[in-house]
Amino acid sequence: MALAINVSSSSSSAISTSSFPSSELKAPRIGSLRLSDRVNVSSVSLSLSGKRSSVKPLNVQSIAKESFVPSQAASMVTSEVTEKLDVVEMEDFEELAKSLETASPLEIMDKALEKFGNDIAIAFSGAEDVALIEYAYLTGRPYRVFSLDTGRLNPETYRLFDTVEKHYGIRIEYMFPDAVEVQALVRNKGLFSFYEDGHQECCRIRKVRPLRRALKGLRAWITGQRKDQSPGTRSEIPVVQVDPVFEGLDGGAGSLVKWNPVANVEGNDVWNFLRTMDVPVNTLHAAGYVSIGCEPCTRAVLPGQHEREGRWWWEDAKAKECGLHKGNIKENSNGNAAANVNGTSSTVADIFKSENVVSLSRQGIENLMKLENRKEAWIVVLYAPWCPFCQAMEGSFDELADKLGGSGVKVAKFRADGDQKEFAKRELQLGSFPTILVFPKNSSRPIKYPSEKRDVDSLTSFLNLVR
Length: 467
Description:
Layout: E1 2-8, E2 29-30, E3 33-34, E4 40-47, H1 79-82, H2 93-99, H3 105-116, E5 120-123, H4 130-139, E6 145-148, H5 155-168, E7 173-175, H6 179-189, H7 194-197, H8 200-215, E8 220-222, E9 240-242, E10 257-259, H9 267-276, H10 339-342, E11 357-359, H11 362-370, E12 377-383, H12 388-392, H13 394-404, E13 409-415, H14 421-427, E14 435-439, E15 447-448, H15 456-466
Parallel strand pairs: 5-6, 5-8, 6-7, 8-10, 11-13, 12-13
Antiparallel strand pairs: 1-4, 2-3, 9-10, 12-14, 14-15
């Protein structure tokens, strides 16, 4: 069955060359269309059951640029070529988000491209967000794609970039970090400083600042964020919003709109779509990588683990954002991160509620540490109830407690966030949540569980080895 989509643009969505470098004095072409032309295609027939050659998008090629920032030289071009989109009239994007809440990703993508024309671009990371490019292709509208080349990506990601360009007949607009800033960071701190003092500084130089430059030449951008990707930071993202962090072409707060067409789509459905449409994907996915970023900061996850556990695994769950989507992290009235990301609040329900799990106070765990000749072995989880990775292991830990009831092994929990965090880091080997410790009999020092496999069988096996 063919799906007919009416693709047209009014005079208010004319495409401008003002965002191209000064050397581009002639109107570039997208396929056979001049950018100064009006697009008025009555209908495009998309056969979802046929071969992809039956789909004929308008975007055959996009012009690669070093920056999206418009040059002053563009003002020298004739009025026909330099006609710009008017500043998008103020609109209630919250209401628009509500109206699109039940819309399909294809509908949302079509609306985004219709409203912003050449002043919007897709942010492509080289992971499953290739689905965004497929949706844009299916609309039949011209579209732009950009990507942040940090210099630390996996070889598989670079190969995917090349494959995607050839598959869709486009040119990805790559953004690069400032060479002087990268050089200073590496010379002062080495190549892997993020393992020692956190990833934020490196991400700020290699990702956030290049993104900021890119977005200054746009009025809107499209991301592949999904609500199920990170329960702590992405669970409430709308399908469209005024970007809370970055500025767009006109400058100032509210000058940039952020579209999230797959916000309400689950990861499995994205993959079903990719397989159905035979879209090229990163070969790292087949090796267990789900969320893919830079090579040193990305690894495969085990079955049952959340996809974001493969990113910056040495840090707390609160730090699972690199800064590109910092606006997802809410703040309370005191300016602190909200409890569902990094806090302690009485409104956050406690976890590990089995009657066989002992809840330890600060005094209780200090006493446990002082005992050199324990009558029983203990297994203790250091946790924070807001942490999605702690929440994910609640069932297995409660099951372990019930299984070990009356066996001579005590199962306990110690809430190690908030005021207890520094103590836990200093005395209890806390690195990230959750941290699991075994206090053997006849030993004063606890042994840290080294694996991220937190199922009952894995925990039991480790316990049997060291108890």
